[in-house]
Amino acid sequence: MGIPRYIALAISGGSMSMLDHLLKHFPQHYRRHSQTIDAIATHQVWHIPDFESAPLDLAGRLVQEDLLLMERSRQGYRLVAASLCFPLRWRLREKLGCPLTQIHAPVPGYSEKLAHPVDSVFNRLKSSHPVWRLNWSIVESPELFFPPENAKPGWETTINCQNAGDKLFLRMERQTLRRLATSGDILFTVRTYVHPLRVLEDNPQMAHNLMETIQQMPLEMQNYKNLLPIQEVLLGYLEYIASFKHL
User: Fold this and answer.
1) Domain ranges, residue 78
2) How many domains in the chain?
3) What mean pLDDT value characterizes the chain?
């Protein structure tokens, strides 16, 4: 039956051109010797031909971002391949092969309010103009790999205003969308950063903005983001930090 289409697309528009990009722009971090590429910081060496049938795997080993490949279908854009290391409360096997509307089904109001704008962005995206956005969450663990089963029952009962800065974490995702020039498919990348919530103590205005955002957030969205169990403590802690800006 031949090589799967998504693999062929990744070879022509994915990690092979990524190798050239990394070597050109980050020579302090990557070095190539004929058929191998070295990740200098981690002392890892990858034999490039070993990934001929799975170039997205090699790409995922070379960069910090999670990589997800979206292919146009009758149902809209569909997740057909991924190198995923750091999911937050979801599993790849649950989403692989699904269109955007199904992937985002747990998001409150997605099908009614967000599906059409998101589809519009995907359809208008040009290979020469990638786009990016930021997403945030408040989580109870600094672990980057955080599938649903990692959640510990009753964790919210251990959080109070005195320890919230150390026991809660601000998890940020820098997400990009890029249309691949050869295939026309879209590469969705996610770079995840995690900091103790106390990092906001150095920026009272940011704490104030986050407090207002949570206060204005619909309850169903707070529930989706797992904020309801810690809402009172979290808002109290943010209000305390925000008061610093008046000092």
Assistant:
1) 64-246
2) 1
3) 90
